[in-house]
Amino acid sequence: MTKRYRAEALKNFAARLFQCAGLAEERAEVMAGVFLEADLLGFTTHGMNRVVSNLRWLESNETRREGAPTVLADRGNCFNWDADFLPGPWVLRQALIEAMQRVPDHGVVTATIRRSQHIACLAAYLPPVVEAGYVAILTCSTPAENTVSPQGSVDPLFSANPLAFAAPAGEYPLLFDISMSVTAGGYVARAKREGTKLPVKCLKDRDGNVSDDPNVFDSGGSILPVGGVDHGYKGAALSAMLEVLSMALGGYGRDDASAKGDGEANSVFLQLIDPRAFCPRADFLRQTAALCNLWQNSRSEGCSPVRVPGQRAWAMRDKQLREGVMLYPSIMEDLQPWADRYGVPVPKPLTQEIN
């Protein structure tokens, strides 16, 4: 049975845990809000599921609790920050706020961040952007991570390199958050924990054999790039592009010896676009809504209707805000020891349960 919790109760619970781990109240609330937003949108591996790892990083001082990012470059319409291991969700939210303040004047604002602690679910940052009427492109990479192998190679090279995009449209935004690998590392870890196989053969073992066994990943294996066995060269090319945008533009990445010990630290690329800098807002919305409508109303291959990226996530977000958030069963199980340790009451689930 999957239990549901009030969104506000989950946010307050996570914020209190982060405060007990040493974060100031404002930063703790931002962290909690970002993780909750991921679950609201249905990204269950990178939402509340990541609270525990962030608590560990705070306690071990792998995450810096106080201070501000260092400004390395700033030309008004673009800036580069060194986060020096500040909490990922907090520092990225600060960059997003800064970009949203600047974009009405500049039309397009681009930002990079180096050495941010893990920023988790990219889509979780985008609802305020589309609600303000802007377009967003957000990606990140991890200099210390080698989990995805290029096509034709058995050696893992890239990190998962997620890419998120959002644009206002009609009843729901066009919104997606996808990795440049066939599956994300979070799903591999979840399958290993639960003793199950992956739905498809999206891994290679250390000898290059394709596999659905999550255990090969920890024995020198790798994840296939987007495109899989046949067309993985496309995913590898996209991975390289995103590492250029996030690492190379930020000036810190795979060529830096110190980056190899940076653990989960992310390199981030963020770009906000104000459509009104290019055309009337009504014209922009007319085009994006038409695209979504044509996609949604195209003929289905089977019994299920065709789904547009963002359609299900936006509907799920609205429903869970109204009716309660469905947490993946292991999440509260993992959070319980931290709640006991800090003496923080665990939110009570809503009475109704979902099969």
From TrEMBL:
Q: Which Pfam families match?
A: Ldh_2 (PF02615)
Q: Which SUPFAM superfamilies match?
A: L-sulfolactate dehydrogenase-like
Which GO molecular function annotations are given, in alphabetical order? oxidoreductase activity
Keyword Oxidoreductase belongs to the record: yes
Keywords on record? Oxidoreductase
Cross-referenced InterPro entries: Mal/L-sulf/L-lact_DH-like_ah, Mal/L-sulf/L-lact_DH-like_NADP, Mal/L-sulfo/L-lacto_DH-like_sf, Malate/L-lactate_DH-like
Superkingdom of this entry's organism? Bacteria
Q: Which Gene3D superfamilies match?
A: 1.10.1530.10, Hypothetical oxidoreductase yiak, domain 2 (3.30.1370.60)
Keyword Oxidoreductase in annotation: yes
Identify its protein family: Belongs to the LDH2/MDH2 oxidoreductase family.
Per its record, how is this protein called by name? Answer: Ldh family oxidoreductase
